[in-house]
């Protein structure tokens, strides 16, 4: 059983590997953004996976610390969770310029690190936030057809695809939907 120190060391090694990865797509992003590592509990039940850091995250080098992060905190609180209980990360660890979507080659180059990161923290359940994270871990499915439903047997751990918290920032009617779907996190598959 890995100790917290083992996990922290494994994560540090992965972080170094990502920051020196020679993939052209990552080198391009690295030239203009800071590395934003995953953060949270080293014994989490849930890992939450977003797409890529935004401007606030790039400045503070912490995932989900801007407006989407405040919405995420509210959603976590609705199911009795705080940041210290969960692992929060992104598929791509550098902010794409001008808030554009992460490109397929950026997500592909980042995926091996994400998988090793999730293994290192040992989260029992994976929760994707938005279509980019879902597409990285479970390609070829539409978010609309699987969101709010546990997907078992596809990834190493059961996966719950959810909307990205940002949707509630630009469509306030989505807040209730997100709250409803977050509640399903508690009905974990056996
Ligand atoms: N959106 C994301 O997907 N990740 C962050 O860290 C912030 C906003």
Description:
It is a single chain. The protein is an alpha/beta fold and 190 residues long. The protein has one domain (4-186): 3-Layer(aba) Sandwich (Uracil-DNA Glycosylase, subunit E), CATH 3.40.470. The chain is 45% helix and 11% strand. Helix 1 (4-20) runs antiparallel to helix 5 (104-121). It is globular and about 40 Å long. The site of uracil has 10 residues, from loops. Uracil binds next to loops.
Main features:
190 residues, alpha/beta, Uracil-DNA Glycosylase, subunit E, 5-stranded mixed sheet, 45% helix, binds uracil
Please give the order of strands in the largest beta sheet.
1-3-2-4-5
> Can you identify the CATH superfamily?
Uracil-DNA glycosylase-like domain
Number of helices: 9
**Ligands and ions found:** uracil
Which spans of ≥5 residues are poorly predicted at pLDDT below 50?
none
- Please give the CATH class: Alpha Beta
Rg, alpha carbons = 15 Å
Number of domains: 1
Question: In the CATH scheme, what's the topology name?
Answer: Uracil-DNA Glycosylase, subunit E
Largest sheet: 5 strands, mixed
Order of helices and strands: HHEEHHEHEHHEHH
Helix content: 40-55%
CATH-defined architecture: 3-Layer(aba) Sandwich
Distance between the termini: 22 Å
Taken as a percent bin, the fraction of beta residues is: 5-15%
- What class do helices, strands and sheet pairing give? alpha/beta
Which of globular, elongated, flat, extended, rod-shaped describes the shape? globular
Arithmetic mean pLDDT: 97
Tally of strands:
5
């Amino acid at each position: 059983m890995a100790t917290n120190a083992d996990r922290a060391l494994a994560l540090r090694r992965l972080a170094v590997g990502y920051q020196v990865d020679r993939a052209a797509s990552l080198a391009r992003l690295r030239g203009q953004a800071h590395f934003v590592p995953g953060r949270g509990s080293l014994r989490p039940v849930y890992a939450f996976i977003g797409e890529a850091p935004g401007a606030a995250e790039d400045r503070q080098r912490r995932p989900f610390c801007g407006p989407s992060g405040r919405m995420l905190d509210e959603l976590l609180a609705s199911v009795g969770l705080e940041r210290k209980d969960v692992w929060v990360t992104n598929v791509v660890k550098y902010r794409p310029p001008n808030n554009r979507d992460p490109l397929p080659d950026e997500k592909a180059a980042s995926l091996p690190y994400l998988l090793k990161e999730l293994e290192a923290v040992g989260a029992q359940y994976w929760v994707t936030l938005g279509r980019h994270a879902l597409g990285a871990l479970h390609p070829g499915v539409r978010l609309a057809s699987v969101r709010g439903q546990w997907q078992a047997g596809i990834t190493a751990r059961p996966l719950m695809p959810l909307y990205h918290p940002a949707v509630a920032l630009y469509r306030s009617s989505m807040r209730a939907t997100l709250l409803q779907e977050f509640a399903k996190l508690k009905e974990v598959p056996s």
